[in-house]
UniProtKB/TrEMBL annotation:
Location of the PH domain: 257-352
GO CC annotation: endosome membrane; plasma membrane
Stated role: GTPase-activating protein for the ADP ribosylation factor family.
Recorded domain comment: PH domain binds phospholipids including phosphatidic acid, phosphatidylinositol 3-phosphate, phosphatidylinositol 3,5-bisphosphate (PIP2) and phosphatidylinositol 3,4,5-trisphosphate (PIP3). May mediate protein binding to PIP2 or PIP3 containing membranes.
Pfam families: Ank_2, ArfGap, BAR_3, PH
Keywords: ANK repeat, Cell membrane, Coiled coil, Endosome, GTPase activation, Membrane, Metal-binding, Repeat, Zinc, Zinc-finger
Regulation: GAP activity stimulated by phosphatidylinositol 4,5-bisphosphate (PIP2) and phosphatidic acid.
InterPro entries per the UniProt record, alphabetical: ACAP1/2/3-like (IPR045258), AH/BAR_dom_sf (IPR027267), Ankyrin_rpt (IPR002110), Ankyrin_rpt-contain_sf (IPR036770), ARFGAP/RecO (IPR037278), ArfGAP_dom (IPR001164), ArfGAP_dom_sf (IPR038508), BAR_dom (IPR004148)
Cross-referenced SUPFAM superfamilies: Ankyrin repeat (SSF48403), ArfGap/RecO-like zinc finger (SSF57863), BAR/IMD domain-like (SSF103657), PH domain-like (SSF50729)
SMART domains per record: ANK (SM00248), ArfGap (SM00105), PH (SM00233)
Annotated protein name in UniProt: Arf-GAP with coiled-coil, ANK repeat and PH domain-containing protein
Protein encoded by which gene: acap2
Cellular compartment(s): Cell membrane; Endosome membrane
GO terms of molecular function: GTPase activator activity; zinc ion binding
Length: 781
């Protein structure tokens, strides 16, 4: 259903809404004029038809007198045409004149009455707003009186404008069916009249039947649309509008490019310092305003990066704030304190976003070196500094990696940006160029403004500028290509970056023998030696683990022996309505080693995809990055090894960081192998709780079943792995809650978010607490 005037938009009373109302009112006036003209023409046609009917009767009588001695058949047949004319004009009288006149007098009259009420209450609201704005802060009784009048006027305006919009939408929906119904009835009258000429109308009859079906559908649709609009009208009317001031929110990703908009009073720069109410908006890194929707916006601030915003308490008017730029300042007034704070915060966020997203040539370097301090100063005094502290912590850890203290592409010191799928640090200019390449080449994130997840931060620390440059710049000196410096023009830096990452011009392609040696070496590498805390427990046989039976739904959440939080079974599994107790685990069962029992088979051919396949198992991120640079498909399928993918091999290797690296490079988290098992199945079978948590956060389908019709939850319950059962069931409960709350629900329950965050930090910082011994042996051919 297409609504002519949006109910939500009418509550804003924006210039866009006013422009739509003017267009609709003009359309209705034009419709009324054309309907009046049509009714008058119909009356003239009926009068002419009556005269024709009388003359036709006289003509028939003349024929009858002439043919008194002839057969009466032709006369009788001719006389049968007379009542058809009467029926035709009688039907025209009822279908066009009466019906359309009723529509004009009733529906259009209601529309005009609603328009009068809307115009009246609009004037009253405008007067109340002006009076409220003019109320001096030192006269409390005038302030209270103006506030009360404004509140009552707003409430009345909401009811009137919602009723008016409802009347408009119903009228626009109804007029189509009314006009079509009139025309169809008139056409059927002609069909009856031209009975003897039915062959001429036979071609139109299918169309008329189609129109009849459309009429029935239109009537049904109109009734449904009316019910839906009345329901929406009632729903909006029942909403709590006591806090209208909180409806304005800053949205940097808005579809129309407008981050925030609303009415503000603006003090003129003339000698009289008059205040005018204007529609302000933040868009395209500018602060603009307009009086009417069709007017060209007037720019207040050309570049938000060069301005600041502050409260104004030294003037008589309330709720004022000032936006100051190097060339001028603009004094504005909101309707309330909440709106003032919202606008101040929106301007501050826009300034921060402008610092992050824009910058050219010489100005770029200045902003890059000061990005962390300048954006930090934009936070309001009452906001916590937790976000900036997280950013500084991430900055220190990433820049501590050798080679990361300078931009990977131009060498500018002290970078503040990173490409998370490449694992490199960038200056602000190079980050803008990387962002223009598209996320399939580079995903850019700020080291100071964004919050970093633990596994992503570890990924950045595993790679770095030196590792990536050894891959992507291997033949640069051999080809004589000059690497740009921090002071070079932007177009030269951009050309170099595209040649490096898009065209991959400086990569050294391995020979077939080198590729074969690399793949064989990776396939034999069971365990990557490093100091990473992700490594699985040592091979020494552990003591017999204590199995924790799955309890009923009342068991809730409890602490396990190793200190991790567990939620025991909340609901029975679909595939295991009554699960038997798990089989006891042998005391001599060793923990799984990376890529256990992954025998290497001589492949038919060696390819970068095969290198990525075995590098993922060996947990060698540099080799994985090299394989991707050489053109390996991140979702490459090994048809000779049960259709396993690099992501499944990363699960077998037991590394959380390798899984994160593949996911950041667009790996499919739900791609299945020949056994119908995806990465979530394999992580559950191996008891890799951190990987299960990561896959659920990345949208893994926990309802997918393998060829044995087992879901990850069924496997986790059978293995008595309470941590993974907790994660799977919490994710399922959270998904069901969001579906029940509808499309406007939030991202999830707070408890769900907290528990997943705990597991995320534990998987990255204390993985030994989450490792579970292998319950399922890989099914090898």
């Amino acid at each position: 259903m297409k609504i002519t005037v949006d109910f939500e938009e009418c509550l804003k009373d924006s210039p866009r809404f006013r422009a739509t109302i003017e267009e609709v009112e003009g359309d209705v006036c034009e419709l009324e004029s054309k309907l009046d003209k049509l009714v008058k023409l119909c009356i003239g046609m009926i009068d002419a038809g009556k005269a024709y009917n009388a003359a036709n009767k006289q003509f028939v009588n003349g024929i009858r007198e002439l043919a008194q001695q002839s057969t009466k058949d032709e006369v009788i047949e001719r006389r049968q045409g007379v009542p058809f004319l009467v029926i035709l004009f009688d039907q025209a009288q009822r279908s066009i004149k009466t019906q359309l006149q009723t529509f004009v007098k009733d529906d259009l009259r209601k529309f005009k009455e609603a328009k009068k009420q809307f115009d009246k209450v609009s004037e009253e609201k405008e007067a109340a707003l002006i009076k409220n704005a003019q109320a001096p802060r030192n006269k409390q009784h005038e302030v209270e009186e103006a506030t009360n009048i404004l509140t009552a006027t707003r409430k009345c305006f909401r009811h009137i404008v919602l009723d008016y919009v409802l009347q408009i939408n119903v009228l626009q929906s109804k007029r189509r069916s009314e006009i079509l119904k009139s025309m169809l009835s008139f056409m059927y009258a002609h069909l009856t009249f031209f009975h003897q000429g039915y062959d001429l109308f036979s071609e139109l009859q299918p169309l008329m039947k189609q129109l009849g079906g459309q009429l029935d559908q239109l009537v049904v649709d109109a009734a449904k649309e009316k019910r839906d609009m009345e329901q929406k009208h009632s729903t909006i009317q029942q909403k709590d509008f006591s806090n209208d001031d909180t409806k304005l929110e800053y949205n940097v990703d808005a579809d129309n490019g407008i981050a925030m908009e609303g009415y503000l009073f603006k003090r003129a720069s003339n000698a009289f310092k008059t205040w005018n109410r204007r529609w302000f908006s933040i868009q395209n890194n500018q602060l603009v305003y307009q009086k009417k929707f069709k007017d060209n916006p007037t720019v207040v601030v050309e570049d938000l990066r060069l301005c600041t915003v502050k409260h104004c308490e030294d003037i008589e008017r309330r709720f004022c704030f000032e936006v100051v730029s190097p060339t001028k300042s603009c004094m504005m007034q909101a309707d309330s304190e909440k709106l003032r704070q919202a606008w101040i915060k929106a301007v501050q966020n826009s300034i921060a976003t402008a610092f992050r997203d824009k910058g050219d040539d010489g100005e770029v370097r200045k902003l890059d070196r000061k990005s962390s301090t300048s954006t930090g100063s934009l936070d309001s005094g009452g906001e916590p500094k937790e976000r900036s502290l997280k950013g500084e912590s991430a900055l220190q850890k990433v820049l501590a990696i050798p080679g990361n203290s300078c931009c990977c592409d131009c060498g500018q010191p002290d970078p503040r940006w990173a490409s998370i799928n490449l694992g490199i640090t960038l200056c602000i200019q190079c980050s803008g160029i990387h962002r223009s390449l598209g996320v399939h080449f580079s995903k850019v994130r700020s080291l100071t403004l964004d919050t970093w997840e633990p596994e992503l931060l570890k990924l950045m620390c595993e790679l770095g500028n030196r590792v990536i440059n050894q891959i992507y710049e291997a033949r640069r000196e051999e080809l004589g290509a000059r690497k740009p410096q921090s002071g070079d023009p932007r177009h030269e830096v951009e050309a170099y970056i595209k040649a490096k990452y898009v065209d991959r011009r400086f990569i050294r392609r391995p020979s077939d023998e080198e590729l074969r040696t690399k793949v064989v070496s990776l396939s034999k590498q069971e365990k990557r030696l490093s100091s990473s805390s992700e490594h699985l427990p040592p091979r020494a046989p552990p003591p017999t683990p204590k199995l924790r039976p799955v309890k009923s739904a009342d068991s809730g959440i409890q602490n396990s022996a190793d200190g991790s939080r567990e939620m025991l079974a909340a609901t029975p599994s679909n595939n295991n309505a009554a699960e038997p107790p798990p089989m006891p685990m042998p005391a001599t069962l060793p923990p799984p080693s990376p890529c256990k029992e992954m025998a290497f088979y001589e492949p038919k051919e060696y390819s970068p995809g095969l290198q990525l396949f075995w590098a993922s198992c060996a947990r060698s991120l540099p080799d994985m990055a090299e394989a991707l640079a050489h053109g390996a498909e991140v979702n490459w399928v090994n048809t000779e090894d049960e259709k396993r993918t690099p992501l499944i091999m990363a699960v077998q290797g037991g590394s959380l960081v390798t899984c994160e690296f593949l996911l950041q490079n667009a790996a499919n988290v739900n791609q299945q192998d020949a056994q119908g098992r995806g990465p979530l199945h394999h992580a559950t079978m191996l008891g890799h709780t951190g990987q299960v948590c990561l896959f659920l956060k990345r949208g893994a389908n926990q309802n997918a079943a393998d060829i044995d019709e087992k879901t990850p939850l069924a496997m986790a319950v059978e293995a008595a792995n309470a941590d993974i059962v907790t994660l799977l069931r919490l994710a399922k409960m959270n998904e069901e809650m969001r579906e029940a709350e509808g499309p406007y629900s939030q991202s999830g329950d707070e408890t769900y978010q907290d528990i997943f965050q705990d597991f995320t930090h534990m998987a990255s910082n204390d993985p030994e607490k989450l490792n579970r011994y292998q319950q399922y042996e890989p099914q090898r051919p």
